[in-house]
Amino acid sequence: MSDLATLERCLGAMGTAFRLVRLYPSTHPAVQEALRTLAAQLEGVAALGTVEWKVGATGMHWRGQHLLPRNSQLSELASLLFARGVRGVQLSPGVTPEHALALYGVATGTTQPDDVTLGRVTVQTSRRTMTSRPSSGQLFPSLSDRLAPTTEPPRWKKARVTDVRRSSATFRLDVLPPDVECRRLVAALLTAESPEGLRNAGDRLRAMIPEVLELRDIALVAEIVAGLDRALSRTDDAATLETLGAVGEALAQPALIDRMVSRLGEPRIPPTERGFLVGGVGALAALSVGPLLRAYLAAPAELREPYRAAIRASADRAMEPLEAAIADTDDALVAAAAQFMGLTGSPEAIPLLAGLMRHPQDAVREAALYAMAEIGGKEIARPAVAALRDESAPVRAAATRVIGVGGDVTATAALVRRLEHEEDEGVLAGILTAVGRLGSPEALGVLAKYAEPGGFLKRRTPHLRAAAIEGIGHIHSTEARALLALYSHDKEPTVRRAAEAALQ
Length: 504
Hints:
Low-confidence stretches: 128-174
Number of strands: 6
Largest sheet: 6 strands, antiparallel
Distance between the termini: 46 Å
Structural class: mainly alpha
């Protein structure tokens, strides 16, 4: 990573921390996560030695380059510092997040440029350079109290420049930045005790939508949408629902949804931001399912979990677009849509998934079965029992999992019958585990035969013996515990480990 990229990452983390410390107390998880991120970035900057950048009216500059020009938080910080007479900032190795956050106090006028809380941060003003000695006191617990303004927090906003020859920044101290104001309004939505309070916050938020769109901050959009979704569940007042719905409709733009989905799939996102994205995309499931499916299919397997989380958050709101998707001619899309149906947890999905058991593609039938396993319930057993005779071994293996999860004890007989005809060892192992999960009266006797090291059964491999023992582990009886204790001393390592795991 280049020196420029290292410094920009640090400043980006600093801007995020400045924003969050104004919104929440220092103990809030979002603040804590931001400070941890900032600490990690400061370690990287420390490797560069002493770093100094210039502060201008519209941003920060280093070696002739404008640092993060599109970062509105950093631009606002730079403008505030410039208005206070700050023309440069220097970081020496050993700077902590607490030292860096003390710059916030300089920007708002609550901390002097020579305050000891700046530690290894040197602030250069237009009049003189002020360098403080390193701070040795405890900073973190009292940071928010020390930096909190004594009056209502100011909102920073540039005034219109009337003289283009003299570019300067003027601020209204009685106005909050749009992102901060929006987050306060979202908090008001979630704490309002009356429909009137919800409507007032909703109306103010709707009026700010143009400013939100101008910021191009997709994380902020996701946070607002997620907050609206939670607020809608707090009321059944028709006028309030209409007001909040109008805000949601203003943000439910295809371009914004595509950006949220795209951002959701990025590998390195702060957990708090990812949570907002999951909630926002899930809340807009009726419109976001299409982009989600496309992104899910294009993503590597290890990066797919955020998309699954968004569908879980959507609940049954995703059912209608998913129902349309499973009728598509693209088999990969149908299989992914089936998986998503299972993640909704909606019982309404079961008949639709059961209908996919007649699909010509093995992958689709397998996906439908695993989706039913996600939903659960005894009603999933019937299509799964029929799938035990499927021509595809992976489909039959998926069927055994569904039956075991479903909990319908009457399906045990079908599993035992299949034991006599099944040729695939993986499917046999799944059957044995499912028999144990169902826990019928005859289950222990069936599994004990397959757990034995010898006997009349021809294909009693260590893998099958271990599967039988795993099944026994689901049976809560004295006899089952005795068998597990016996096999915990088996000479076969695979069997021994399975028994030990079942005993825990």
